[in-house]
Specification:
The chain has four helices and no strands. It has one domain (2-74). Helix 2 (18-39) packs across helix 4 (64-74). It has helices at 2-10, 18-39, 43-62, 64-74. The protein is mostly helical and 75 residues long.
């Protein structure tokens, strides 16, 4: 997922442990999309970002081990 790769690259965790990084990352993903949703005026774009956020979060939860490994590589 392109959006997920960009988010992982831009994420800078405070935590040292993989599980804590993962939990911070979930919050980071949610808040990143929430900012975009709040700044756009079009309902169509808001819905688009909400759908993307949902898919990214579902993928992140379903692939927890891979995401933790990716987070450990970057940070």
């Amino acid at each position: 997922m392109e959006n997920l790769t960009d988010l992982i690259q831009s994420f800078h965790p405070d935590a040292k442990k993989g599980k804590d990084k993962y939990e911070q990352f979930l919050l980071y993903v949610y808040m990143s999309f929430d900012k975009r949703i709040k700044t756009v005026k079009s309902d169509k774009l808001k819905n688009k970002y909400k759908e993307i956020r949902q898919r990214v979060l579902e993928y992140t939860v379903a692939n927890k081990r891979k995401i933790i490994a990716d987070l450990n590589k970057v940070s």
